[in-house]
Design goal:
The chain is of the alpha+beta class and 80 residues long. It is built from one helix and four strands, in the order E-E-E-H-E. A hairpin with a 2-residue loop joins strand 1 and strand 2. The protein binds zinc ion (ZN).
Length: 80
């Protein structure tokens, strides 16, 4: 896909880090598969991946953790 931020380059598959913040909580995922723009660096994670991350963020908020850094593992089924 063409990057929607700079509209100048085709995105390429790669890995990125995604930071989710919610109130005082912050959750960082490393090695998240995404489409990345080689021009401006914008990363686009797939919807299914984003859904997983948001679910994990919910779990973290419920557990009362303020900051966490995780490696994203596509094979892991996150359940609550
Ligand atoms: Zn771009």
């Amino acid at each position: 896909m063409i990057c929607i931020i700079c509209e100048e380059a085709e995105t390429l598959p790669g890995l990125t880090s995604i930071l989710l913040e919610r109130d005082e909580h912050s959750l960082t995922f490393n090695n998240v598969p995404a489409q990345i723009c080689p021009n401006c660096g914008e990363a686009y994670a797939e919807e299914s991946v984003t859904a997983n991350l948001l679910r994990e963020a919910e779990r973290m908020a419920r557990a009362g953790e303020k900051m966490e850094v995780l490696e994203y593992e596509p094979i892991t089924v996150l359940s609550s």
